[in-house]
């Protein structure tokens, strides 16, 4: 073997050896690591995309969207039949009142009055979730999981909070906070849709 062949063999070996670590590497968003996969209701989900929610100049939270398979359009995301998860990690302290108001404003901006009327009881329950926790602290992890035939369940730092909300229309209304025509953050929407 000449030097060139040896060099090519070594480079190929190094790339091959490194490939698994790239394939399973977590995505880092502002110091928050989102695993490439997670499990909801016994089903493995893939990270569709992740990004940062900013308000004015402040980084508020990092969010990741997990689906059964990657989707790049809003209608496709909303039509996914299996479980789904929005994973949020707080990057600063926010009162639950402010956080709850932002969620309500996001739903109002991205749904019609008729749609909201149909899911009003669940919106009210969702508001109660935030009333249970006075402050979301930096580092707190909030998960919003959709499980077919069950509903939406919220978790704060791995602990269930609030009641199960059964209607998929409610979960899709929540997703539209970030993915709707008037998203909470115009740079977070493409990030959650997996655009580079």
UniProtKB/TrEMBL annotation:
Gene3D superfamilies: 3.50.70.10. The keyword Cytoplasm does not apply. Transmembrane segments: none annotated. Residues 26-194 form the Chalcone isomerase domain. GO terms for molecular function: intramolecular lyase activity. Residues 1-25 form the signal peptide. Keywords: Lipoprotein, Membrane, Signal, Transmembrane. Coiled coil: none annotated. InterPro entries: Chalcone_isomerase, Chalcone_isomerase_3-sand, Chalcone_isomerase_sf. The keyword Iron-sulfur does not apply. PANTHER family: FATTY-ACID-BINDING PROTEIN 3, CHLOROPLASTIC. This is Lipoprotein transmembrane. The lineage of its organism: Bacteria, Pseudomonadati, Pseudomonadota, Betaproteobacteria, Burkholderiales.
């Amino acid at each position: 073997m000449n030097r060139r062949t040896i060099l090519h063999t070594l480079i190929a070996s190094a790339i091959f050896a490194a490939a698994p670590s790239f394939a399973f590497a977590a995505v880092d968003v502002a110091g928050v690591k989102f695993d490439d996969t997670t499990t909801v209701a016994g089903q493995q989900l893939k990270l569709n995309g992740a990004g940062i929610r900013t308000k004015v100049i402040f980084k508020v939270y990092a969010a990741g969207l997990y689906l059964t398979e990657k989707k790049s359009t809003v209608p496709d995301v909303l039509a996914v039949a299996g479980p789904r998860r929005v994973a949020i990690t707080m990057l600063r302290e926010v009162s639950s009142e402010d956080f709850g108001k932002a969620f309500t404003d996001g739903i109002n901006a991205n749904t019609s009055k008729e749609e909201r009327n149909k899911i009003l009881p669940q919106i009210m329950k969702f508001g109660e979730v935030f009333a249970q926790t006075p402050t979301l602290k930096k580092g707190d992890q909030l998960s919003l999981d959709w499980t077919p035939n069950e509903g939406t369940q919220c978790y704060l730092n791995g602990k269930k909070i609030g009641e199960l909300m059964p209607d998929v229309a409610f979960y899709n209304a929540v997703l539209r906070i970030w993915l709707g025509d008037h998203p909470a953050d115009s740079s977070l929407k493409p990030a959650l849709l997996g655009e580079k």
